Each structure stands twice: as C-alpha cells, then as structure tokens.
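your task:
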Amino acid sequence: MADTFILLRGLGRGQHHWMGFAERLAAACPEARVVCLDLPGNGERWAETSPLSLEETALGLHRECQRRDLQPPFRVIGLSMGGMVGLAWLGLQPKAIAELVMINSSLASVSPFYQRMLPRAFLRLLPGLFNPVWRERAVLAVTCNLRRRDVAMLSEWQAIARKQPVSRRNLLRQLVAAARFQPAAPLPGANIRLIASHADRLVDVRCSETLAARWQLPLALHDHAGHDLPVEDPDWLIHSLLEPRGLM
C-alpha cells in the first residue's frame, strides 16, 4: 500500500503556510499521497474553536481522515505544535501512525518553558496577538533566518491572515493545550524521529536534543535554517524524511 503523508503545521498556522513543501514532497514520492490537514482554529478551519487539549485535536484529525476516506496507517509530519499533535495521535491510536516525524517540536514534560519559546521571540510575537496582519511580520522575523527579509513571502502570509484570521482566543487556547500536554513515553517500537534546526530562534534546539536523549530517538540537525525549516530548506528536509530513519 502506498504511503499517505499527513502534514500538520503548528501554532496559528494553516496548510497554506507550507509554501509549496507538500507539492515538493509529492513530486519526490510520486507513488505516495500527501495531505495537509488544518488544526481547528487555523487555516481553512479558522472560524472553529481550538480545543483545549491536543488529544481532542488529534481525535478530530482522525475523524477528518475518516471523512476523507484516508486509510491508515499514516506517516505524520508535524512542525512545532503539529509534532505534539502527532504525538498525541500516536498515543491514542498507535496503529494509525506508521511513522511520526517531529520538526522543531518540544514537550512541557521534557523542556522548560523558556526553551520551548525563547523569551526574545515571545516579546517579539506578543504585540501580534492584537492584529493578525501585523503578527505575520513578527512571525517571519522569528521563524525564518535565510528569508526573513523576503517581502514577497511576507505579503503572501499577510494575505492569508486577512482571508483566514486566526483569533487571539484560539491562539491562547492552543498555547494552553500545548502547555497542558503531558505524554507518556511512547510504546517500545514506536517509529518516531526528530528533526531540528541549530539556528532556531523560536524554540531552543535543546528541546529536540533532550527529547532525543531521553527517549532514545534519532535526531537530524540542520545547521543554519530557522524554525520554519520546510520553508527555508525544503529540499534538505525532504532528503532527511526519505532517508532511512532520517540519518544523513
């Protein structure tokens, strides 16, 4: 059976923020199906209320896959909070997830809050809670290193924000859900791997390094991209995803 990749973005982000990554992955794996799902409150589901638990979010994604007649097991690729949602999904329905890849993700049970969102990034993002269009300039500044001055991408992200405005209430609910998430160690044999960016200015790379050490998981590291690795270096990321166990 051909692979089905499920792509999940993170806090306040939707499927359009993959910026062509899904199409690149599909071209690299023509036999596979690549599906981007939005979390409730984000993307095309911006008008919905975000759950206060990542487990509830995960169960909702499973129901969405059933509605679309997507057959598990899935290869779930989650960026940031999307990786946490994937882990919640794996914990609830381990047979539904053939592989989970967590990119620049973190867990409250493993890393302190000041590593999970670096203080300088938090201060830069805080004013954006009050205006979804202004928010995009701050998000671009803290999540992208190589393209942080890309005016065209900023314009596109601001257009997405106007069309799909993630509410301040939903952002706060997502932050609460992420802070409350306390997963147990995965069952032996769970196929999980980590990918992280050394130069991430939003989430400290130590979050991935500590998780890899504690749970004995493989970790691939990018040396200069920022938090939004799929946008900054999609080809490197696809190569990492398609290498056995992510080893470069």
Summary: The chain has a mean pLDDT of 93. The chain has eleven helices and six strands. Residues 193 and 218 are 5 Å apart (CA to CA).
